[in-house]
Write a structure and sequence with these properties.
single chain, about 0% strand
Length: about 55
């Protein structure tokens, strides 16, 4: 074990993931829903996604 593995303030991955998920859920609940995108902006995003897919 390394020095950081023995650190009493360090939390394990499972606990860290649980905390992150809980914070994310609470943020989603407390934030207002995002407004719908304009049709033009939606078209531009779709075009960008097509170009990204074509590159890979």
């Amino acid at each position: 074990m390394t020095q950081t593995d023995n650190d009493p303030d360090r939390i394990d991955r499972k606990t860290c993931r649980y905390i992150c998920d809980a914070v994310g859920e609470r943020l989603q609940q407390s934030m207002p829903p995002e407004p719908a995108l304009s049709s033009r902006l939606q078209q531009l995003l779709e075009e960008m996604q097509r170009q990204e897919t074509a590159r890979h």
